Amino acid sequence: MIFIVALLKRVRKNQIYGLLTLALLAIVVGGIVYSSVESVSVGTGLYWAVTTATTVGYGDVTPHDAAGRVVAVVEMLTAIPLFAGVFAAITASAASLKLRRMLDLDRHLPPPGYVVIYGAHAVVARVARDLVAAGKRVVVVAPDASSGALPEGVHVVAGDPTSEDVVRRSEPGKAERALVATADEGDALVTAVLLRHIAPDLPVTAIVHSAHVARALGDLGVEQSLSAEELIGHLVARSLEAPHAPELVKSLLGTESFVLDEVVADAATVGKSLAEVRAASAELVLAVVHDGAVDLGVDESRTVLEGDRLLLLARATRPAAQGTPGAQPAAVR
Q1: Which of 2, 40, 74, 331 could lock 44 by a disulfide, CB 3.0 to 4.6 Å apart?
Q2: CA 116 to CA 168: how far, in whole Å?
Q3: Predicted confidence (pLDDT) per residue in 150-170, tens digit
Q4: What is the pTM (predicted TM-score) of this model?
Q5: Average pLDDT of the segment spanning 188-198
């Protein structure tokens, strides 16, 4: 009995199969032991065990001595609860499946190349909306599976983003980029570690409050860690120097006609100065990104090198706004 209970505690993923195996084992063992103590055939013992475990109890085979009655008691206290557990697990699984379908939680992931967001930070809904507007496919992984605040077309994976099983269900290896946007900074660290383990080549950006946590995430290999504290602090400070600085930022980020785009510098731009690239481009080239550092070219017009990326203010209708990695701007020559 203690052995059975110990095994039951280990039943997790294959609960139904585990319970069914234990129930059948209880019948076979009980039937063999019963046939031995009651001096009947093994077939008769198994027949008795089945009728007892299923609570049918025809009464045509019954124990005649104390040893047989002890076997019968043990059989009833093990096999019957085990079979009840099997039927309960099946019923629970069916009810869970129906509930998930009713709540529209059983969603398939989009084709590879999507952006996956982990967490329920206050900015998630807005970020998802802007990404969808830019033509991105978006997956949100959050404990609250309700997609009421999310835009149409966002795929939801319900679950804790700090759980390895949940992160694997989002298939980060098929994503183009990931955003860690948990409400708790400790959760952000755990999710970042899981992503580094499961999808080491996935570019990851994280939103945090503290600059210290941002640096810790950088040490974990997170490509970009945005500190809300620093961003707001810098913006407020600049607004005191230039009152319209916040409006400039909002016009860059919030316009529907233009979007910020980042593209790999093509062969025609490599070797040219940023000033020359700007002069030849029909779009506004804001900066060049080299080794993760953004250079506006204010102090001096630096040369664009192979592997650099260009930050552009591009029209929202242009094909490159779909965010395909390596897409080249048609107007940059």
Answers
A1: 40
A2: 12
A3: 888 888 888 899 999 889 989
A4: 0.50
A5: 89
- Fold equal for 2-102 and 114-231: no
SS3 for 309? Answer: strand
Cβ(110)–Cβ(155) below 8 Å = yes
CATH number, span 257-333: 3.30.70.1450
Cβ neighbours of residue 3 under 8 Å, at least 6 residues apart? none
- CATH topology classification for 114-231: Rossmann fold (3.40.50)
The pLDDT of 30-38, averaged and rounded, is 89
Range of weakest confidence among 27-41, 51-65, 159-173: 51-65
| Residue 203 DSSP SS3 | coil
Q: Where do we find the tokens 């997609």?
A: 147
Which CATH architecture is the domain 2-102 placed in? Orthogonal Bundle (1.10)
DSSP track, 248-273: HHHHHHH-SSEEEEEEE--TTTTTSB
pLDDT grade for 141, boundaries at 50, 70 and 90? very high
pLDDT value of residue 101: 53
> Each residue of 203-248: pLDDT tens digit?
888 887 777 777 777 777 776 666 666 666 767 777 777 887 777 7
pLDDT > 50? residue 134: yes
**One-letter amino acid identity for 128?**
A
Residue whose C-alpha is closest to residue 302's, from 285, 320, 317: 285
Say how far residue 162 (Cα) sits from the centre of its chain: 9
What is the torsion angle, in degrees rounded to the nearest 10, for the CA atoms of residue 272, residue 276, residue 282 and residue 288? 60
The whole-angstrom distance between residue 227's C-alpha and the CA centroid of its chain comes to 22
Per the DSSP assignment, residues forming a β-bridge with 140 are 117, 156
SS3 166: helix
Instruction: Indicate the Cα dihedral angle 86, 88, 92, 95, nearest 10°.
Output: 110
- Cβ-based burial of 138 (10 A; exposed 0-12, middle 13-18, buried ≥19): buried
Identify the bridge partners of residue 304 per DSSP, sorted by sequence position: none
* DSSP tag of 322: G
Q: Specify whether the backbone of 231 is left (phi greater than 0), alpha (psi in -120 to 50) or beta.
A: alpha
